[in-house]
Specification:
This protein is of the alpha/beta class and 482 residues long. It contains 14 helices and 24 strands. The radius of gyration is 23 Å and the shape is globular.
């Protein structure tokens, strides 16, 4: 029996969380929420609109839009209509957009801005299969006929407003077409050194639910999201796991330049990020230290030293002694507390992925009472393989595998992964798929080592796997595996 799909999980949450905000986006400078019930009704309507456009089960819908509640709406509507989505980063060039549309064989393209509409209208060599351009991300399910001289929006008719309201009240969003017999499919494209491959992923309900269990996410959590939803890391950790399975409320930041400002306003309890974001905050602290007068500099240096000592003890479940504890309390009050306050004052933990996180950066944040949990994964593994847990973490490692994911280390040190998170294959490239998938095991191209401890894996020297990879593929660098 096929596992229940992502749309089925969404409908369950709609019934359970009805009036709770699901996602916030900024409109005219103000945070505007969409409740679970409102999202349920809109997803049902948008999915019906896609079906009315003639979208068949398994056909692709490309989403070229910035992060917003409407992005989530388009994703869930595509899944509910039985489609397969192919996200495109908002910052992509017209040439890359054209490539993804052709490589995925997209039938529908969802956009959210007038500038993107102009780009599409100027595409004289749009892929032949692209039949509709949906410019309704901000206002409903609208579609533009490719045959028109310009990509003019035209309303895709779905259920009437009264019918949508009645069905939404009666079924909490169950009105969406239930056409996805398999687990939700997603086609992710990512750039290579020479060439770009589509990765077909199957989103299994149990995978995401167990992934959510790895981290204690609750319905009263608030997650600040700034990484592109077109990236599999943010999509899995910051959207599916956190919201669809954990019930957390999402807040979409419009600009990285306002990240700290928005953290102070939203006061998030969770956030996903990449190392460069945390490093930037850490280096800003170091710059402040260097520019400080001698007495202030000495205070900051002492606070940093004490904070790191305490952070290293915490990793091993130990408490500081009386003298060190007293020094730390003073350092926290004078140095670290203002940093935690600027980030909202109620962060439970951050999640870091995408690249190695330097232990000294993680120690600095923990000194400020801000725990960063580092994980490991890759696009071909949907993309989470392992992650540290709040009660069991070691900086410089990537934690234990998810409960339903198996990991082993090959004879040459390569990390091999098996589980429902492993991709179905490279879209339309069976020969390349066979190079990395054997008997359900994914050869990651990363080198790692594991320990016998129950809490984490150990770091290794940074080097690349010696196993030959297909032409044009960059070998991944691994800092640890598990």
């Amino acid at each position: 029996m096929s596992p229940p799909s992502i749309p089925a999980v969404f409908r369950e949450q709609v019934l359970k969380l009805q009036a709770r905000p699901m996602a916030y986006g900024k409109l005219d400078g103000h945070w505007r929420p969409l409740t679970w019930a409102q999202m349920g009704v809109r997803v049902a309507h948008a999915a019906a609109g896609l079906v009315a456009l003639g979208l068949e089960v398994g056909e692709r819908v490309a989403i070229w839009a910035r992060n917003s509640p409407e992005w989530v709406l388009a994703d869930l509507a595509t899944a509910s209509a039985g489609g397969v989505d192919a996200p495109i980063a908002d910052s992509s060039t017209p040439e890359y957009v054209r490539f993804v549309l052709g490589d995925a064989g997209a039938r529908v393209l969802v956009i959210d801005g007038a500038e993107q509409l102009k780009v599409v209208a100027r595409m004289t060599d749009r892929p032949a299969g692209l039949s509709h351009v949906d410019h309704g991300g901000r206002g409903g399910a609208a579609a533009g006929d490719r045959g028109a001289d310009r990509a003019q929006p035209a309303r895709a008719r779905g259920p009437g407003r009264g019918a949508r309201r009645r069905r939404g009240r009666r079924a909490g969003g169950r009105a969406a077409p239930r056409r996805s017999a398999d687990a939700h499919l997603h086609l992710g494209h990512h750039r290579r050194v020479e060439g770009r491959d589509g990765v077909a992923r199957q989103h299994d309900r149990q995978l995401h639910r167990r992934g959510a269990r790895a981290l204690p996410i609750k319905a009263d959590d608030h997650l600040l999201s700034f990484l592109p939803l077109s990236q599999s890391f943010e999509r899995m950790a910051g959207y599916y796991m956190a919201s669809l399975f954990g019930g957390a409320t999402l807040h979409y930041v419009q600009s990285m330049g306002r990240l700290i400002h928005d953290m102070g306003l939203v006061r998030p309890t969770l956030m996903t990020g990449v190392p460069r974001v945390y490093e930037k905050i850490y280096h800003r602290f170091l710059a402040t230290l260097e520019a400080a007068p001698p007495l202030r500099r000495r205070l900051l240096e002492e606070a940093l030293t004490v904070g790191r000592e305490v952070a290293r003890l915490k990793q091993h479940g130990e408490r500081p002694g009386r003298i060190l504890g007293a020094k730390y309390r003073l350092a926290f009050d004078q140095v670290f507390a203002p940093l935690a306050a600027r980030m909202g004052g109620r962060v439970r933990f951050f999640v870091s992925g995408g690249a190695p996180l330097a232990p000294e950066v993680a120690e600095f944040f923990l000194a400020a009472g801000l725990l960063i949990l580092e994980g490991y994964g890759l696009s071909e593994a949907s993309p989470v393989v392992s992650v540290n847990r709040p009660g069991a973490y070691r900086f410089g490692t990537v934690g234990r595998p998810l409960d339903n994911v198996r990991v082993r280390i090959g004879d040459d040190g390569e990390i091999l992964v098996h589980g429902p998170n492993v991709m179905q294959g490279y879209f339309g490239r069976p020969d390349e798929t066979a190079e990395v998938l054997q008997d359900g095991w994914l050869a990651t191209g990363d080198v790692g080592s594991s320990t016998a401890t129950a809490s984490c894996v150990s770091p290794i020297a940074r080097r690349t796997c010696s196993r030959p990879r297909r032409a044009g593929t960059s070998r991944r660098r691994c800092w640890s595996g598990g």
